[in-house]
């Protein structure tokens, strides 16, 4: 298979009828151009030029070959330049999977600044509660928790996935405040049914000293989406187990309050995932670096924690 250099040397020499002029325009030595054209002739098994002391003349075979190449060489050169430029300037469609609430609250607000910095990137964002298969489903990145780290997938931690029982002040008004996890069984519970297993999600909670207990909420309202749980809790319909990351603004504003401030469930880590550390497309590298910088500035490691910062 011919190299691009051999073809470029042939076409430029044919246009200028001179190895020396072709070499000058290509930034090569005349000997290198002659050698590349000679290699092309040897590979094709035909003579492409008749050589004289003054100039080059295309043979009949050379004329046919030049005509057959036509615009293909320009197309190939443009494709190579575009691909090389794509390694430097982030561009193209950026397919990202985002946990719905986390994505809307903590990722989407930074999108205007991201697009201002990288205007050639086209976000294609999928808000999905399930962990996707980045490689099989063609995602450039994902933000959430519970992803399987298949070979080649990189996880960059953003903060803990701590789950806490919360309710609205309106729901708690006039009710006896629970003292321990067992007391929640006496309250209205907003629970979630897993779309995968079809089971109601149960939680093992712990306190700051390491004690653990099974938490059982009464199944007063059943939904299949954390955002629906959050909405129901805001409406005063009961107690719900929600991720601190999803309700950090509610906790700060007082629209939701922690029912058992010393107790929480640990669901692992919220991370930014991408398929590989090597040969990372510029658009993906830009997304990863931009959002890790934003998450660090927002101190999400502390803000998403049930035992640190403002949630103590």
Please specify the SSE layout and strand pairing.
Elements: H1 4-16, H2 19-26, H3 30-44, E1 49-51, E2 56-58, H4 60-69, H5 72-88, E3 92-98, H6 100-107, H7 111-117, E4 121-127, E5 141-145, E6 154-167, H8 169-172, E7 188-192, E8 203-207, E9 212-215, E10 218-223, H9 226-234, E11 239-243, H10 244-253, E12 257-258, E13 263-274, H11 282-297, H12 300-303
Parallel strand pairs: 3-4, 3-5, 7-10, 7-11
Antiparallel strand pairs: 1-2, 5-13, 6-11, 6-12, 6-13, 8-9, 8-13
Helix pairs in contact: 1-2, 1-3, 2-3
Describe the structure.
The chain is α/β, with parallel strands linked by helices and 312 residues long. The chain has 3 domains: 4-88, Orthogonal Bundle (Arc Repressor Mutant, subunit A); 92-160 and 269-311, Periplasmic binding protein-like II (D-Maltodextrin-Binding Protein, domain 2); 165-241, 3-Layer(aba) Sandwich (D-Maltodextrin-Binding Protein, domain 2). Helix content is 39%, strand content 25%. The chain has 12 helices and 13 strands. α1 crosses α3 (30-44) and α2 packs across α3 (30-44). The chain is rod-shaped and about 105 Å long. The mean pLDDT is 87.
Structure at a glance:
With 312 residues, the chain is of the alpha/beta class.
Question: How much beta, percentage-wise?
Answer: 25-35%
For the terminal residues, how far apart are their CA atoms?
67 Å
Oligomer: single chain
Task: Please give the number of β-strands.
Answer: 13
CATH topology of the largest domain: D-Maltodextrin-Binding Protein, domain 2
CATH architecture of the largest domain: 3-Layer(aba) Sandwich
How many helix segments? 12
Spans of at least 5 consecutive residues with low confidence: none
Radius of gyration: 31 Å
Q: CATH superfamily assignment of the largest domain?
A: Periplasmic binding protein-like II
